[in-house]
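Dig into this one:

. . .
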Amino acid sequence: MTAGINPVIANQILDSLFSNAAWTPPAACYVQLHTGDPGVAGTANISSYTTRTAVTWSSSVNGTKSIAAPLTITASWAATNNEVITHVSFWSAVTSGTFVVSDQLLNSVTAATGASVTLSSLTAPLTPVAA
């Protein structure tokens, strides 16, 4: 599976847009780190650091939503030195919740014991956008 939007969420958005079906978007957004593709449910290849971190977004531009500022995740990477983070997933809650979308990082990040991980940019695309 390629990283992307949860098919259930995609269907809810489309039904809301084209069939006037009610849809309630998530009230918050949390990012989870992954060492590979998160899969269709967002639960595959979860990093050894399993705590989700709240994300603050800027306004959407050209079909893409970007984080408002670099996101620093202060984690305990003990015993996971050199774990390579390649993907992220976005969730509606800090635990449990609804998987919304996943994406592959443009540049992987290597976690070092005792160090935080900073994601300087993250986007949640909804593309292609007509031009």
About this structure: Residues 5 and 121 are 18 Å apart (CA to CA).
